[in-house]
Write a structure and sequence with these properties.
Elements (H helix, E strand, L loop, with lengths): L15 H23 L15 H12 L8 H15 L1 H6 L4 H9 L3 H15 L2 H9 L10 H8 L5 H7 L5 H4 L3 E4 L13 E4 L1 H8 L12 E3 L13 H16 L4 E5 L6 H12 L3 E4 L11 H13 L3 E4 L7 H11 L3 E5 L12 E5 L5 H12 L8 H8 L4 H17 L7 H12 L7 E3 L13 H23 L12 E6 L6 H12 L3 E4 L1 H4 L6 H16 L2 E4 L15 H19 L3 E6 L7 H5 L3 E4 L5 H11 L12 H7 L4 H18 L5 H15 L27
Parallel strand pairs: 4-7, 4-8, 5-6, 6-7, 10-13, 10-14, 11-12, 12-13
Antiparallel strand pairs: 1-2, 3-5, 9-11
Helix pairs in contact: 1-3, 1-6, 1-7, 12-13, 14-15, 16-17, 16-18, 18-19, 20-21, 23-24, 26-27, 26-28, 28-29
Length: 722
């Protein structure tokens, strides 16, 4: 076999452990090919691997009848001696810290046979000429990658075939760690197991052969995060910083392998992960799920990410664990010896935690800390006097939201040609950044009304202002004054607006949200309430989570439909309906935001809900002076009113609520626009007639005729709405 010289073997590599290991396996392939030549196989036969001759059939039958006996030859002896020389220094070469192959073997616990199987599969990647030798040995010119049968024949002594089978089982290290896969030929997808090809993982091949150049971003779902700040520089509560600093030593020693960072998006979970990785002196790999709810993180992607963290001696930060849960992540962390940190939204329910797991709750920043975060995010850029104090007090935001809003506000200031950031810039930026995504469950309510448009008794107005003040000052009361420690319930504030339809409950909710600069979302009960078991709770959980993230006010109109009284249990449906009400009760207690419930029927509300309301504001039916005031403010200043319009008469005649008055005014405006005239008393009376018809009330045509004297009222008209 003079055509096969030592130059065919792998050239020397910087990784001595890999070079010696590959050279050793290459010698075996070299020796096997030489033996085939001695037995009469001719690699120069143009039909070899394509056609079976009579001589070839006889040779196969002879081999099946008797065990393979290696021929003797001086070259074979020389090859065996060279292989032993390589084996003598192999262990020492693998133990060198610079050997990536040695690190891989030790970290993944590969046995000697598993190493040889992988290196056999790797040989054609190192030098394509080995593919031709392997095809020669497998007697098939198309099979340039080794198969299990080749490994059984040339890597093991006789009667040890079961060892190869065991190494290639799905739960064996080679396949569990995704180092090697079995691949059937493209022309024969149903080929037997022994005829399938051993294919090394592409990422592992690059890791071993390309060195550090392959470490940047091996997978689209995994990337390196920038180094984080020192733990002592984190802008968190001092208690949280102390807890994180205490975790560094157990994370470094492996006593803690799984860390749960519980909090809302923007709470600083990624910042904590970067800072902890820097404290450990390790890089940080960040794993993200593919976009879209239908693309969950697969178990294979999770294992690849953990394996990569092992190869790069990095920490792994998982932003959304998806369907994989704690036991699976704990197993990955321990298998690969890497710290794994999971970012979870909110606090996980009570459950058994795997050994070596620690939970860290990301706290919401208080007002002074929010002020500091605003200053840091704006990098000392000048702001309107008092603007930062105002937004820090008004908006209960997380650090991530503050950072994004500050960047947005800077852009708005540049857009308007100003160097100083105004209060309006900050408020617009906050609204843009934290606007929740609740299009399918709620709709945003634009703020169009002011306090002077709301016509209610003075006590009701004062009650609403007290509610707004409580929202504005709750951080001061709960945090600075310590009332948070004395409350068994959550930090949220809940108000119940009661009164007949059209008395101003929705308008009051708009005005309160507008004064505080908070987004208001009106809940679509038809989308929230579901006939399917568990769906209503799922929708409500999402509602409360999104509202808390966006610092939004949730407005439940006709709340008695959702928060109604619990009934006696007569069947499974009643039992489940009561469970829904109990869940709502608990959700309201735990919610840290603001909820406004409105109902026309206070008697239908569950007593437990009413007791848990911080504010119950009553909106009475408007009396005549109140109706007169509503008529004054219902017409925009641009609306052309006729000289005959008598607001006193309208207030006296029509004993209706503000909502109906607005409908009448709008209807009269349409009639006047069609007639090409100003809005006259006749238009208002006709619109009032249509409004009464819509309400389903019995009417007398004489009631809607123009009165002969100002302030007169047709007999019996006042009781029309009774």
């Amino acid at each position: 076999m003079t055509g096969l010289e030592w130059a065919v073997l792998p050239m020397e590599m910087p990784d001595q452990g890999l070079w010696r290991s590959l050279r050793r396996v290459a010698l075996r392939i070299y020796r096997a090919a030489f033996q085939q030549r001695l037995l009469g196989a001719d690699p120069d036969d143009p039909y070899r691997g394509l056609l079976l001759s009579d001589q070839e059939v006889d040779r196969i039958l002879s081999a099946l009848a008797e065990r393979f006996v290696a021929p003797s030859h001086p070259v074979l002896s020389e090859l065996q001696r060279a292989e032993k020389v390589l084996e003598e220094g192999l262990d020492q070469a693998l133990c060198e810290g610079s050997s990536r192959w040695g690190n891989l073997v030790s970290r993944l616990g590969l046995s000697p046979l598993e190493r040889d199987l992988f290196l056999l599969a790797l040989l054609p990647e190192v030098d394509p000429r080995y593919g031709r030798l392997i095809a020669f040995l497998q007697d098939d010119v198309t099979r340039t990658r080794p198969g299990p049968f080749l490994a059984i024949r040339f890597l093991l002594p006789p009667a040890h075939e079961d060892a190869v089978w065991a190494c290639l089982l799905p739960d064996a290290p080679l396949r569990r760690h995704l180092l090697l896969r079995l691949e059937a030929p493209s022309h024969d997808p149903t080929a037997p197991w022994l005829q399938q090809a051993l294919v090394p993982d592409e990422r592992i091949t690059r890791y071993l052969l390309a060195g550090s150049a392959s470490d940047e971003q091996p997978f689209p779902f995994l990337h390196r995060a920038h180094p984080g700040p020192p733990l002592e520089q984190l802008k968190f509560a001092s208690s949280l910083r102390a807890a994180l600093q205490a975790l560094v030593e157990p994370l470094a020693t492996g006593r803690v392998c799984l860390l749960l960072l519980e909090g809302a998006p923007g709470s600083g979970r990624r910042t904590v992960a970067r800072a902890l990785a820097s404290a450990l002196g390790r890089p940080l790999l960040e794993l993200t799920r593919p976009p879209g709810e239908n693309n969950p993180l697969s178990p294979e992607a999770a294992r690849l990410a953990a394996r990569e963290a092992c190869l790069q001696e990095a920490c792994l930060f998982v932003r959304d664990a998806g369907p994989l849960f704690l036991d699976a992540w704990s197993e990955l962390a321990r298998s690969y010896g890497v710290p794994v940190w999971l970012a979870t939204e909110g606090v996980l329910p009570p459950q058994r935690l795997p050994e070596g797991t620690v939970r860290v709750g990301m706290e919401w920043p208080d007002r002074p800390l929010r002020r500091t975060l605003w200053e840091r995010a704006l990098d000392s850029r000048p702001c309107e006097t008092g603007a930062l104090d105002e937004v820090a007090s008004r908006y209960r935001l997380l650090g991530g939201h503050i950072r994004d809003a500050a960047s947005w506000a800077e852009g708005l200031a540049y857009l308007h040609g100003r160097h100083t950031i105004s209060r309006a810039d900050l408020e617009e930026a906050v609204a843009a950044v934290v606007m929740p995504t609740l299009d399918d469950l709620a709709r945003p309510v634009p703020v169009r009304h002011r306090w002077d448009e709301l016509v209610v008794p003075e006590d009701t107005r004062a009650h609403l202002r007290e509610f707004a003040a409580a929202i504005r000052k709750r951080d001061q009361v709960y945090d600075a004054w310590g009332f948070d420690r004395q409350r068994p319930l959550g930090r949220g504030l809940n108000a119940l607006f009661t009164g007949p339809s059209g008395t101003g409950k929705t308008m009051a909710a708009e005005i309160v949200a507008g004064e505080l600069g908070l987004p208001l979302f009106k809940i679509d009960l038809s989308a929230v309430v579901s006939k399917y078991v568990g769906e209503t709770e799922k929708h409500l959980r999402r509602l409360f989570a999104e509202a808390e993230r966006a610092n939004a006010i949730l407005f439940f109109d006709e709340a008695d439909a959702l928060f109604g009284k619990r009934s006696e249990v007569s069947d499974a449906h009643d039992r489940y309906a009561n469970i829904e009400v109990a869940y709502l009760l608990q959700a309201l207690e735990d919610h840290a935001g603001v909820c406004i419930l409105a109902t026309n029927l206070l008697g239908n509300m569950d007593d437990a809900f009413v007791r848990r309301m911080h504010f119950v504001v009553h909106f009475p039916f408007p009396d005549e002076p109140a109706r007169r005031r509503i008529w004054e403010v219902v017409f925009p200043k641009e609306a052309p009113l006729g000289q005959d319009v008598n607001l006193d008469e309208l207030a006296h005649r029509f004993r209706v609520t503000g909502g109906h008055i607005r409908n009448i005014a709008l209807g009269a405006a349409f009639l006047a626009a069609e007639d090409g005239q100003v809005i006259t008393m006749a238009h208002l009376l006709q619109a009032a007639r249509r409004e009464f018809q819509k309400m389903g009330k019995m009417i007398d045509e004489a009631d809607f005729a123009p009165s002969k004297a100002q302030g007169s009222c047709p007999a019996g008209f006042l009781d029309a709405l009774s």
